């Protein structure tokens, strides 16, 4: 027999007291509600058998079964809801591709802006150097007076030497001619004008220079002038030169700085190539890089 008091199944012989209590409770059951907690229900079972007063609290049982019923209802609703279909792979790839494109664009703009800032800072620093900053007045191989202003707007590659140089000057001018050809054949960069500046005003007349530079490249321009003009131009480019002693044939060697200068269209110093061991292609690559950087800054 199930004993409603003990909430257990017991033989009837062992539940006599429970039976009496249960029988008496049927006649005197009173349900009250707790005033302080509307969710708590108490059932007071008052019995007079053997002066027992039994108090049953069903609040926990009520809450448990109430929550269980809610969970069962939710589970039923979820079981009736159709499963969500996964996102198609094509749509996923489109989203990932769009994110990568946006990220790459932002990275490129940030990197390009940073690089442009560095290039501008370098150009500003180089423009403050006094290499080729001062004006000079010379005579070209056609006998025409020229100055720094006549070469503005052009990329220049300058070399200082003299026409009676036995070996070094011819080698450097041949290298310069090869560089000019490489630059002119590259249509992605502007042309380059080669200049040969003499450091021997006594022997290097316009006619002598014209004949000399024509042996290396048709574009090459030879410049000479008075001793004072050549001294001023050499000082502007920080080039050292000194004539040696004359021999019995009245011939002499001029010791001078071996260097090529690259000047931009604004007439500012950009770079120099002073080592004879530097390969022609390396100089060409350096010139091309400087031209491209200049185009990024000034269009």
TrEMBL record:
Query: Which positions in this protein are listed as binding Cu cation?
Result: 165, 169, 256
Indicate whether Mitochondrion appears among the record's keywords. Answer: yes
Q: Which GO terms describe its biological process?
A: intracellular copper ion homeostasis; mitochondrial respiratory chain complex IV assembly
Signal peptide residues are none
Instruction: Please report the name of this protein according to its UniProt entry.
Output: Thioredoxin domain-containing protein
- State whether it acts alone or in a complex, and with which partners, per the record: Homodimer.
Q: What is its biological role?
A: Copper metallochaperone essential for the synthesis and maturation of cytochrome c oxidase subunit II (MT-CO2/COX2) by facilitating the incorporation of copper into the Cu(A) site of MT-CO2/COX2.
Taken from the record, one Pfam family name reads: SCO1-SenC
Sorted alphabetically, the keyword list is:
Chaperone, Copper, Disulfide bond, Membrane, Metal-binding, Mitochondrion, Mitochondrion inner membrane, Transmembrane, Transmembrane helix
Q: Which organism is it from?
A: Ciona savignyi (Pacific transparent sea squirt)
Where found? Answer: Mitochondrion inner membrane
Q: List the Gene3D superfamilies.
A: Glutaredoxin
């Amino acid at each position: 027999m199930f004993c409603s008091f003990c909430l257990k199944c017991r033989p009837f012989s062992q539940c006599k007291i429970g039976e009496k209590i249960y029988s008496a409770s049927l006649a005197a059951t009173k349900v009250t509600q707790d005033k302080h907690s509307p969710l708590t229900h108490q059932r007071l079972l008052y019995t007079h058998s053997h002066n027992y007063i039994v108090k049953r609290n069903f609040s926990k049982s009520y809450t448990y079964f109430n929550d269980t019923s809610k969970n069962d209802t939710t589970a039923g609703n979820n079981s009736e809801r159709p499963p969500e279909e996964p996102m198609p792979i094509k749509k996923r790839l489109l989203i990932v591709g769009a994110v990568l494109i946006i990220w790459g664009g932002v990275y490129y703009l940030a990197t390009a802006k940073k690089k442009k800032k560095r290039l501008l800072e370098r150009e500003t620093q180089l423009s403050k150097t006094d290499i080729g900053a001062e004006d000079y007045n010379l005579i070209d191989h056609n006998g025409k007076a020229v100055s720094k202003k006549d070469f503005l707007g052009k990329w220049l590659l300058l070399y200082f030497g003299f026409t009676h140089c036995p070996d070094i000057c011819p080698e450097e001018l041949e290298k310069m001619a090869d560089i000019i050809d490489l630059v002119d054949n590259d249509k992605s960069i502007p042309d380059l004008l080669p200049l040969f500046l003499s450091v021997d005003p006594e022997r290097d007349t316009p006619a002598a220079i014209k004949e000399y530079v024509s042996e290396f490249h048709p574009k090459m321009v030879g410049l000479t002038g008075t001793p004072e003009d050549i001294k001023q131009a050499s000082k502007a480019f920080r080039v050292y030169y000194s004539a040696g002693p004359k021999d019995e044939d009245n011939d002499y060697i001029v010791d001078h700085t071996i260097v090529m200068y690259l000047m931009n269209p604004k007439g500012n110093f950009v770079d120099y190539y002073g080592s004879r061991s530097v390969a022609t292609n390396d100089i060409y690559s350096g010139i091309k890089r400087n031209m491209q950087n200049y185009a990024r800054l000034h269009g």
